[in-house]
Amino acid sequence: MPVVSKTTIKLMARGKRAEKDFREFVRFIGGFDPIEHQKEQMEACQDIGDNPKSGRKYIVVAPPGSGKSLLIGVLFVAWMIGKYPDEHIGLLSYADKPAWKQSAAIRRIIEKSKPYHFTFPGIGKDPSSWGSSEFKINRKSLIDQHPTLRCGGTQSAVVSYRMSGLVFDDPISEKQSRNAEQLEKAWDNYLMTITTRLIDNAWQMVIGTRWVDDDFIGSLLLRKLEGWKIIHIRALKSDGTTYWPPDGKYGYSQKFMEDKKTLDPELFQVAYMGEPGKEGTGIIKKLPVYREVPSLEMIKKLDLLVAVGWDTAYKDKEKNDYTVGYVGGLDAYGVIWILDRRKGRFTTPKLIEQIYEIQEEWNPYEQWVEDSGGGTPAVQIVVAETPGVPLTTVTPTQGGKRSRAHALVPYIKGGRVSFARHATWFENSRYNLTRFPFITHDDDIDALWVLVSNLVGMTHPAEYEKRETRRLRMR
After folding, report:
1. What angle (nearest 5°) sits at the alpha carbon of residue 128, between those of residues 125 and 129?
2. pTM for the structure as a whole
3. Which residues contact 460 (CB under 8 A, 6 or more apart)?
């Protein structure tokens, strides 16, 4: 009978504890003790480990660098593989390479970690299938063709796989979150492909950092009725202190967080506090409003010089941007009163209909249309059909969309642009204007800038009357 040292006996006993207790597994295999902000994540992992067939679903929203990928994307997956070696797990991310890096870390644990071998002594690699995108461990069934772990990007091909569990680590990147088409593809692939590969009562863990309000996690949050539980970790606690321990051994210091907040408060609110849907997180904080209902009578009463600004999309498909038009009137004091707003994924014929409709309803003296793939043909057709419609293409401004939003700030903050509080379109307009750039679509900013930048340069008719009066007095 072989002699076993006391050290080995202690390691074997610790391995048995780690097999059942995820916190002990993290200590034993990961080599660190989970800290306060990881407590809920630990409990969620333990819950799934204890109830793998219960269909548990968790969303973890956390700042960059919070340790969520290591804890859940690597250690939790390695733990679940050891506990349930005959099951099949998916590990997906926004692209192949990030998922493959985690796959490599998991494989190193399975292959080389002595604490892991004390915890799961029967687990070993299958040399015939041991790659980055998928691998197998030795298991009972010799005819099971599905990999133990399948790794890849959000749009990976998972059609032929069956998964009993899924970890989605950062389903969308910051760059992808700015692209409506990329968001649409990732979400569609999840709904139509990935979820259909999950077996009945499969568990799911989605972890990530928020970038825009309508990103992948934002779409999931709208589906709370499907049983998703949310774990929300903010970089600053309610008392304003950092979520990392103050001893400085781990994570980011109080000064680091305060510097981040000072450098870019809007980005900090979204990515580090996980609150992209909060009003005022954007460049434009708040919209001035008026309570009157926009009408022709109001235009006469305030003596408004009415015009329209259009930002047009290139295509009418749902994944593309919207076409947006703002109708506004300039009064004698230089204030622009926003009277109407049109928004939709318009084809060129539909855009032409909108142009005619606005002309008939509001009788603007000018409609400015941004010179683009969607707007220019519409202008050419309308001008050819009805020369009397005042329609002009304008060249897009230089400097990018953020510069347009910043340029709008002094007009809006100073009360020189006012919105109809009780209009049916107001809430959607406010949502899109006060959350930019942390939303996918920027059409409202562009359309409003087309209107404001052109209208403020106009001279109100009342000014000519004042000049004539001054001339008469001088005589």
Report:
1. 70
2. 0.72
3. 303, 305, 330, 331, 332, 334
